[in-house]
Specification:
Elements (H helix, E strand, L loop, with lengths): L11 H17 L2 H8 L15 H10 L17 H14 L5 H14 L2 H11 L4 E4 L14 E4 L2 E10 L6 E8 L2 E8 L5 E5 L9 E10 L1 E4 L4 H37 L1 E2 L2 E2 L4 H30 L1 H29 L11 H13 L4 H14 L3
Parallel strand pairs: 1-4
Antiparallel strand pairs: 2-3, 3-7, 4-5, 5-8, 6-7, 9-10
Helix pairs in contact: 1-4, 4-7, 5-6, 5-7, 7-8, 7-9, 7-10, 8-9, 9-10, 9-11
Length: 379
């Protein structure tokens, strides 16, 4: 086991990046602004819109955030994963609608492809080209040869599901099967034969879709037989990013609920005076701290201890998933009668947490995987 660097490898550069992100979101992305952007219409029969601020996205690109995980050889910054995790945490804390986290996930897969075309695609990401993974089948599986898309003569056919930020993405990394083996392919979102079909999801800060390919020309990133290996290699980093987003959203829910409990008076006392309120909030804080520690530990392992990266990442996703449910339920409960209303901003973060906790497997799924890793052979 490799020796872990101090503070999970979180140094001066990573601190500066996190601090700049905090200021960016403080200046541009208050909960009031986000709610006005994505939740201006409470009608349950409203049209399925993709609501995000493209101007802010361009600012992010200019700040170099898309290049954080792109190697220097491909035109990026080449920072450690903990830097992206810090950004993901701040994004979760702001519930910020953008394709950045999906682009990070695609970046990790492209890094694992180790091909000339993948390097070229990484350079495009560093330049601001939003990219999303399209690797999941109708049953929600992304593992081994589980794909509903096939490829012959460079043409994609079939449907891929649960594609995150699909309507914000400029291109997709697609897993497709040829002769029973999975490869990875790059295709523009507006290419001929690509039909993006939006899904109705509870998370107002994201969009999701399934994508139908019909004789759509794609570029090979990883040959058949190497695609699933690249996805598996990238998965620990992907899990870290999703976990960090949940940590950030959990922190917003906690701090907002604590502030409400300090100012809302009932029976001539602030709500926070009562043990039935303050004790569960302390438990939320402990859950967030556990999830955060596990997430940064897993990210550090991806950078410095690949042998344990998957194990630590599954631990982080499991804890973060449970924390997401608990922090959300306590926030709604302790806001009382207004907690479940549309006008209360809590629902934005609640819904983001519910989406994240099942994305790439919920807590039970990852505990089962951990059990297989740690005791399955012996059993």
């Amino acid at each position: 086991m490799a020796e872990q660097p101090k503070n999970f490898g979180f140094g001066e550069d990573e601190t500066m990046l996190r601090d700049s992100a905090q200021k960016f979101f403080l200046d541009n992305c208050s909960a009031d602004k986000i709610h006005g952007l994505v939740a201006h219409d409470h009608n349950v029969h409203r049209s399925n819109e993709c609501l995000w601020d493209k101007t802010l996205w361009q600012q992010i690109v200019e700040l170099g955030w898309t290049a954080v995980c792109v190697p220097e050889a491909a035109g990026g910054v080449g920072m450690p994963l903990v830097a992206a995790v810090a950004l993901a945490e701040e994004i979760g804390k702001a519930a910020f609608p953008s394709p950045l986290l999906s682009t990070y996930s695609a970046t990790f897969v492209l890094n694992a492809c180790q091909s000339d075309e993948a390097t070229k695609a990484l350079g495009e990401i560093a330049g601001g080209k939003a990219t999303s993974l399209a690797v999941t089948n109708q049953q929600g599986s992304w593992e081994t040869t589980d794909t509903d898309v096939s490829i012959d003569d460079g043409k994609l056919n079939g449907v891929t599901y649960f594609v995150q930020d699909a309507r914000k993405a400029d291109q997709f990394v697609v897993s497709a099967k040829h002769d029973g083996e999975v490869g990875l392919y790059l295709i523009d979102s507006n290419a001929d034969g690509v039909e993006i079909i939006p899904d109705n999801i509870i998370d107002l800060t994201r969009d999701q879709a399934h994508i139908r390919f019909k004789n759509a020309h794609a570029i090979e990133l990883a040959a058949p037989g190497a695609g699933d290996k690249a996805i598996n290699e990238a998965m620990p980093a992907i899990l870290c990013i999703v976990s960090a987003d949940m940590v950030g959203a959990g922190e917003w829910l906690l701090q907002t609920t604590v502030e409400y409990a300090k100012t809302r008076v009932q029976f001539d006392r602030p709500l926070g005076f009562f043990q039935a309120v303050k004790h569960p909030l302390v438990n939320v804080m402990l859950d967030i701290d556990r999830a955060k520690s596990l997430t940064y530990n897993a990210a550090c392992a991806v950078d410095t201890d690949a042998e344990n990266a998957e194990k630590f990442a599954r631990m982080a996703k499991s804890q973060a998933g449970d924390m997401a449910v608990f922090s959300s339920s306590r926030a709604v409960q302790f806001h009382g009668g207004i907690g479940f209303t549309w006008e209360c901003y809590v629902h934005l973060f609640f819904k983001r947490q519910m989406h994240n906790q099942v994305l790439y497997g919920d807590a039970k799924y990852h505990r089962a995987k951990l059990a297989d890793m740690l005791i399955g052979v012996a059993a």
